[in-house]
Request: fold
Amino acid sequence: MIHLMIDGNPVEVEKGTTILHAAKKVGIKIPTLCYIENLLPDGSCRLCVVEVKNNGRTKIDTACTLQASEGDEVFTMSEKVIQSRKQTLDLLLSDHNIHCFSCEGNGDCKLQDYAYEYGLDCSSYEGEKSGGEIDDSNKFFTYDPSLCILCHRCVNTCNEIVGRGAIATMERGFQSIIGNGEGKWADGTCESCGNCVQACPTGALTMKRRKKYRAYQVEKKVLTTCPHCATGCQYY
Ligand code: FES
Reply:
């Protein structure tokens, strides 16, 4: 077993346990954007950083990927940690189309929640935004790259939970978007199960609200779940 301290609380965990799970064990919640429980960590958002001291050395690292070591002293809300999270959120907002009040994700957006919690209502960086065209080709949902934070929750859900592998990160760097590899979302092997939409922490992937569909909450309602698809049938 590994023994460590998290925010002054002694914790005992099995070897291989991440700091995120060790903290959870003593009721300490660390903010995450890209992490999905029970999947391998993506480590892309950098919001879950913590400060770790051990053997006279101090480092800032991501709690979702870092495994606990004997004697670790972990600080989840130190000044350095808060500054690092603010910087991460500032950078995410710098390439985000901030129109929260008219956004489909308003009120159901983790980026919005954390920006509010850490006192940011806009980015301190000015400059070009990556943007990209809205992909409206799927009958049931829409992908807006200007709201995408490239956390890969949708891709990891499609690959590892649904087992479909219908979407991936396309292009590189500033041009990166999520798509089916080539062409529009509707052109690929996507079966419109909607799990990617549920996994999206922002308004980048949203269910369509058109006249032939019911309201948002009803669209998301799962009526049945069978062992084949693990998705459930939904009202439209
Ligand atoms: Fe750890 Fe995103 S939750 S890097």
